Amino acid sequence: MTHDFLGMGIFNFPGIFPTFGDVTGDNIADLIFGTTKGTIGVYKNYAANNSVTPNFLFMIDSLPGVFVSKHSTPAVYDVDQDGKTDLLVGERSGRIALFRDTSSTSTKKLALTTINYGNIKSGSASELFGFSAPTIAKMDNLEKEYLVVGNIDGTIERYDSFTNNWGMIPRVDSNYSFIKVPNRSAPAIADIDGDGKYEMLVGNKLGGLRLYKQMLTVTDVATEISSLPLQIQVLPTPADDGFYVLYLDTHCARQTSIRLFDLSGRLVINKTFHQQTQLYVPMNGLQSGLYLCEISADGKKAVRKIFKK
Hints:
Elements: E1 17-21, E2 30-34, E3 40-45, E4 56-60, E5 73-77, E6 86-90, E7 96-101, E8 110-114, E9 133-138, E10 145-150, E11 156-159, E12 171-173, E13 186-190, E14 199-203, E15 209-213, E16 232-235, E17 242-247, E18 255-262, E19 267-274, E20 278-282, E21 289-297, E22 300-308
Antiparallel strand pairs: 1-2, 2-3, 3-4, 5-6, 6-7, 7-8, 9-10, 10-11, 11-12, 13-14, 14-15, 16-17, 17-20, 18-19, 18-21, 21-22
């Protein structure tokens, strides 16, 4: 449709990283963008509401008091759940800064809360730079929102329990769906084609875009757990090449089914055992990361988390 949206090229903004959200206090999504300089620019949306065609007009190339060291990557979300949108900004180090709306009126006032939100450091721990690129989105049919972060490695990280959390935010996936682009991944997620399943666009340093689509329905395994849990133990954890499921009582189930899911809900292992109390499940060929293990026997179910080194 255009190779120079809104004629932004005339300003020669270095390394634009765009997103949308309200940063002016009128509850209408503006176009905001980060730059390699670490600043945040804004094209204000003068449309009547979010349901009509947006009307973006240039407002400012650097929001006062809102900047990071280099390579700012903004995401707008109500992090503290007070009804006002805040601003998360990724940057070159791999950390994420949080600027909260501290205003008591409709006039937006973004103030730095922390330069190390959730103690997140994207990319490899040994790397000097991480190039964090955060977004908040629903990713599948369970309609749960996650903090999703691109990084210098080209993979996608996923974090849970990120709202109103001023401590360490748990990372539930270090390589979501085994996605990997050449360098510096930057995800954006939405149901683009309106079919009820989500798509993910992932940008990268080379300038291209890759499109990923949710193909399977995700199962909320936790809802299937019986109120009378099986007396089992899973070890070792973290696991190397495999793990054992051990019955802690003398009961020997006639048949035990073990299913292993990755965190996208994809079934990666499905094994059945007969009249055994020590069940070994190999994990050869699986990527490092967190998995959910569902054990079914005698009409009961249990779920355990397994982390593969």
